[in-house]
Design goal:
flat; Muramoyl-pentapeptide Carboxypeptidase, domain 1; 19 strands; 2-enoyl-CoA Hydratase, Chain A, domain 1; disordered N terminus; about 500 residues; homodimer
């Protein structure tokens, strides 16, 4: 498989963090007493926020209180300390103090029932910081902890994760054959990552698929370029296409440059593709919003726990003359959803594809003073019109599904699939064959003689042994050809519909 | 269904707690500074142990330290308090202080990875205490929280739970159609309980069964008599049979009385039946051990976290002349396992049936000062010979399985089962029919015409519509007849083998 030679280490090394808009890289210790640092500071993408780490104070309880204000009331604190002491002193096995207290912190986070609020211990936080310094190698997917399971929010486009067939909402339950039960999100991510060229086998539970899938992903370095663009001529019209893969610090600048280049060419319409884009910096999407959303209209509204909202209003001076269509799918999350909703609601533009992921909250990483960190949900964001899309997603104005074979799970053929079998695996293979124009006769999972003929034809074309039986080689070849077909613009019905709409509109 | 008219409110109201040997009912506040109250106090079954609740001290942290000794070191405490303050003050939603700290306590318990160490909040603890005062009505099963799931340790014998077909290791995932995800063990138990005559529908995941089962259990009052006995004459030999359903406070006294009555009759052998007995008080099983285990031999060894062992040695003066066989199964847990292992290892007696549950730890309930409680594992116990049976169980000397239909899952017939179907449900029905002497032709899950004939014959005998189709009425009738057959001593191969061994032995 070919991989782009441009890389995106910062973004993908933050694969866990990326889904959080307003995510600030925490490196220095600054004063953390300001109540709403993110809201007050929307002009500066580099804002660093941290809870004061060490001011020389010796009294532990007092310092925590000084730093953050809320004191545990005495009777409640007494109860917690009593439970702690009993467990430390009397449980049948000795436990490490730190381990118990990390358990306590995780227990508080569990009460919140928020997959985006997580604790990172010193080691994990440090490893994450280290990985920021070097070029990142991994599988290229954003994950979150949802209902206790490590869950794919979205594989990055053209990433090893996407090529291997991982999909949004896949739940990773094993890595290289070992269960990851009990691992934190960050521990799991560190195991998934690894050197370019090595393979990691993920055991995945997929909603609607009864058996666990074992998916081999060949790790790679991940492209750093978050914005790519192209000029397309269709029926005499000039259409600009800008794809945003994630919202990193440089994304808005890159976007602006490429947008202006396209505008110089005199485009008649613009397609913005945020499919499979898991989000990134709030500032980044706001800056892009300022280039597209009509002036005076809100790009996004940030709401704090008291329900107070701050509207971030577009300062665009000249409204765009050309029509815009944004492509979305269930892998479009967070900042992607802000952009799509703003273009739809405030701009009245087309949004084409499928309902987005639905992440309507803002996290910030806060230091706990010993190198460990708390990533905590501090705000909600609402769309231009004030809609909360959390767990709902942004609906397209034009719903367009891709062809069925886009959604097929990888075929597991450890036991070869052959004539007269009847299974989900056979159904997957049939959908793939159909998508590749080898007519399998049926797509209901029964391996008919027509299916066998289609397999033979496929094997013949691929230079494989012509057996009519789907063994591992044939399954891999099917998977490779399907990935190619998915990346062929001719099969991209969402893209095609966007172009149609822009030309009609013109 | 017939239910015994003797009741056991105390035992079963403690259905969650019962599995813990050395479980003391916590009612008064006494001094909790003694390090090993259980070990030092084996002569007194009424020992109450609690952490000092309120000594008028105002300083929370200090009191916890005074009471239990272990202080959180300053930097660790600082970190916990900082995390607490950040979450309290800044998380996007406001949370109750108490809820967060209960989360913290549960988080510490999670670190222990021990299904028997649990936290009970004020309300739950109070409801449990209340239920001790009145006659208890419920389903009659011991449950534990294992891998985050409410799991049946054992249904009590002849209880509604057993009659409805619940089995050890069934995981309860729903109650009356609602998921119980997120509920604590105690919250779940309080929902399972209810008035006699009412029905609770439990949604159950059973190891080895692919689909969830919905099992209706009609609640009832639960017999208080923990010991029943009988004199059996077989081939001219007099065999005493004593069944112990659980180890409550009065169990040892009742056992002694009935044993002496049997001995007066001049028995030639003794069968002790602890199948489906989930355990109870450590003192209770020690007292019974003193009546049966050869003098000078250890009944059980209690080991603390430092690995120090205290041997509880039998004080029996006159060794028993007659042979003894103990009946066990996978529902025999805790105190039952102590007794079976002692009789096997120290007494050299027969143990007949199947490997037991495997619970080798001792819990104690400790008060946290505000009415809430911590049930915590404080000790391990080892068998007479020093074997740790935790998660292993006690193996029988004579392994005997019951007939297949003893292990059949209830038939789910919301959609009627009929000719030419092929499913696990059909297989269950076939095993039941076979056990009831209606030959279904096969027991592989294919609903053949022989199976249809067997269903017709069964329906005819039961006065049901003779359709050959298994609808809900037929499924219930099958279940009822199977329960009767299970309770028929003629089908009890384990019991029969025990009798054979005793007569051979004689």
């Amino acid at each position: 498989m070919n991989i782009d030679k441009k890389f995106l280490p910062l973004i993908v090394s933050l694969s866990v963090i990326l889904g959080a808009v307003a995510m600030f890289v925490v490196m220095q210790v600054t004063d953390g007493t300001s109540a709403e640092p993110v809201l007050n500071d929307s002009g500066d993408a580099d804002t660093e926020l941290a809870i004061d780490q060490d001011d020389g104070e010796e009294n532990a309880a007092e310092e925590a209180v000084e730093t953050s204000g809320s004191e545990i009331s005495e009777d409640k604190a007494e109860k917690f300390h009593k439970a702690y002491s009993i467990i430390m002193d009397r449980y049948v096995e000795a436990f490490d103090e730190e381990e118990l207290l990390e358990g306590a912190i995780n227990g508080m986070l569990e009460v919140l029932d928020d997959p985006y609020s997580v604790y990172m211990d010193q080691e994990t936080a440090r490893e994450f910081m280290d990985s920021l310094d070097s070029s990142f190698e991994g599988i290229g997917a954003e994950v979150s902890m949802t209902n206790g399971k490590v869950t794919i929010v979205a594989p990055f486009r053209d990433s090893p994760a996407e090529k291997a067939g991982l999909r949004p909402n896949d739940q990773i339950v094993g890595i290289d054959g070992d269960s990851i039960e009990g691992l934190s999100l960050y521990e799991a991510v560190l195991q998934i990552r690894g050197e370019k060229g090595t393979t990691v086998t993920l055991t995945v539970e997929r909603p609607g698929v009864s058996e666990e899938l074992n998916i081999d992903v060949v790790r790679d370095t991940i492209p750093i370029e978050t914005v790519t663009s192209e000029l397309i001529e269709e029926d005499g019209a000039k259409i600009g296409l800008i794809e945003i893969r994630s919202f990193s610090e440089s994304t808005a600048t890159d976007f602006e440059e490429q947008l202006h280049a396209l505008e110089k060419e005199g485009i008649d319409g613009l397609v913005i593709d945020v499919r499979g884009n898991p989000g990134g910096f709030l500032q980044s999407v706001e800056d892009i919003g300022n280039l597209l959303v009509p002036g005076g209209e809100p790009i996004v509204q940030i709401e704090n726990r008291e329900g107070e909202r701050i509207r971030h209003v577009s300062n665009l001076e000249e409204e765009k003359e050309y029509p815009i269509a944004t492509l979305i799918n269930e892998g479009s999350a967070s900042a992607s959803e802000i952009l799509a909703a703003a273009l739809k609601e405030a701009g009245g533009h087309h949004v084409v594809g499928e309902t987005t992921f639905g992440k309507g909250t803002v996290q910030q990483t806060l230091q706990l003073g010993d190198g460990s960190e708390l990533k905590l949900t501090l705000f909600r964001w609402l769309t231009s019109d004030g809609n909360d899309i959390n767990e709902v997603g942004v609906e397209p104005t034009e719903e367009v599904r891709q062809p069925d074979f886009f959604y097929v799970s990888p075929v597991q053929a450890e036991d070869p699939l052959e004539f007269d079998m009847n299974s989900e695996q056979v159904e997957n293979a049939q959908l793939m064959l159909e998508g590749l124009d080898y007519d399998p006769g049926r797509t209901d999972g029964y391996f008919s003689s027509e299916t066998e003929e289609a397999v033979r034809a496929f094997q013949d074309d691929e230079g494989l042994d012509v057996t009519g039986v789907i063994d591992e080689d044939t399954a891999w070849a099917l998977q490779d050809r399907v990935v190619e077909a998915v990346r062929d613009r001719e099969n991209d019905l969402q893209f095609k519909r966007a172009i149609e709409l822009l030309i009609e509109n013109e």
